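User: SWIM zinc finger family protein. Structure?
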Amino acid sequence: MTTQAYSYAAPSGLSEGRLGLATSGGVSTEGAVAHPRFFSGLLTRGDVAAAGLLALADVARTRYYQPKPTSMRDPVVTCNGDRLRMESFSACAGVYARLDVLSQALDGEVTARGTTNVDVNGPLREALARVGGSDPLHLAVGADELVVTTLDGATVEKKVPLPERWLRSFAEVQAIVSGFDPRAELSAAEAVRFLRGLPRGGGHLWVQPSGRSLRPTARPAPGALCLAGAERLTTLLPLLRFATGLRLYGPAVTANSGPVASVWELELPGMRYVLTLSPEDRRGFSGEGAVLESLISDETAEDAEIVAASLSFEPRLDPADLADLTRLPIPRVRAALTQLGTGGRVGYDTAEAAFFHRELPYDVDRVAAMNPRLRAARALAEQDAVRLGDGGVAAVTSGEHVYHVRVENGSCTCAWWIDHRGGRGPCKHVLATRLHAGRQA
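Assistant: Predicted structure:
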């Protein structure tokens, strides 16, 4: 368990139509900042923004699998110049939520670009719940404007326990959804009808496009989308009165597919509210293993540092432009972006099918070290436990057992691979084999 310490110049507050979000330590285009200030101006639809921020906070304090009381985790906010992105994870790490406030909903001054945490406290939640109508709301993200609502300037300190799996999940989500395609699009009326008609029980089902709507089904089929735990979509419901449409994203599936993740993107006036659900309600994103391949290659790590030097909190990262800047081939740029995502330095926006730059205000260097499979694979490689044989088969000695890895397809004779068939990333023996083969090459 990691303890994350937040230090705010004053608590966030809402008073007389002025919303001040206090920021904790983060990173901007000027480097590390104790209390960065990103934006001051109007939100053209204050009621929508208030409801979206409440939904985001609800996800951050909810444990969907085996519910129990949890502490509230402050959302991560990134200013990409033309938009504000606010992100959070559920306490069980199985739901990722993001509210994108786009340029058409912002009328004010962007003073810096960067990433930080913002304080969302109990009194602020109560105040946001009372915001109604279509009047604009004044928003200030940063300490300079907080004198509007707080005159004493008292420092607010928070220490929040963050599970290591919650931190790893930030790295996993972007790697998973970057391979998704649009699967369905519903009008506002159809979205309301479908979401309000979903069962609220556990388990998982599949949804299949049918005419202008979706129909639930018990089995996967080409074009279907997995929905694991319909109750995890609950935070969409209060936003439906503002919705202009619903888009769904997921991977390609067949009739034999197992559970997969899915993205549910609610279109709002000038904003988007996005929920990404893990393949099963009992599975957090932290164990999916989608980033492990990217963490193995030393060359990709070097490329990632080159690409990182060219980033400046852009809302959309174009691999072709980055290839021109870095003089790296586009495939290596794409691999580098995935590598940067493993440390939380980039996210992925399914609506624009593009990565975006952010810098998580956490100790992201620990993400790789926190992954037990990667630690075990590196230990096996260092112990010279891998023997490459003829026919593309490697023998990996682990403890008292020898496992056989087929290098071409990444299969293994271990229990992990037999149980998951690669559906949760490679096992430690496959990783060790690839690490060893790379060093030999």
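Residues 46-60 form the longest helix (15 residues). The CA atoms of residues 245 and 267 lie 5 Å apart.
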